[in-house]
Amino acid sequence: MPALTRQQLIAWSAVGLVILLIGANYLRGQFSAPAGDAGVAVTVGMKEDRPAPRLKVHITGAVSRPGLYELDANSRVADALEKAGGATPAADLFQINLAARMADGQQLVVPEKGAAMAGGAAVSVGGQASGSGSAASGASQPINLNAATLDLLTNLDGIGPKTAQKILDYREAHGGFTSIEELMEVPGIGPAKFEQIKGQVVI
Q1: pTM (2 d.p.)
Q2: 57 contact partners, CB below 8 Å, separation of at least 6
Q3: Tens digits of per-residue pLDDT, 112-124?
Q4: CATH number, domain with residue 141
């Protein structure tokens, strides 16, 4: 085999160097791709770990530990009662809806037995109010708009079941009443009807 000249050796060395550079670049791309994918996976995982929204509610009345509490977003009234240490023996749980959803900024007032009763009307186990309409109109203890049930609201002068349900719907949608004047925002309750019942309700 004839010996290579110096020029041929230089040429072959240059070709070999080019081949090495191409191979190194190829291997570098193979190793860097998985690292990039791992980075994307970590980023996605961090986005999925966002904390769930929380509710802040004020729980007061006949509960063991009244105060301001944080609840999960889908909490019910029953969950709020448990957070506040449960109802006291004096609580009248038949006046509140334990299955109702809580809203951020809402105040939950747990009434005591005999409180917020229109004209001494009693609430039975079935949730039906007893007592006459005339007794309700002479109520000595006004009804709390943020704690009353549908049956209690129907004891108000001129308020039937349909309007009482609209009051409950408004209360749930707005997180409770902040003033009795808000009753005029409820469909079916105008200034005239509000004047008729304003002395029978409180916040």
Answers
A1: 0.38
A2: 68, 69, 71, 80, 102, 103, 104, 105, 106, 107, 108
A3: 887 644 433 333 2
A4: 1.10.150.320
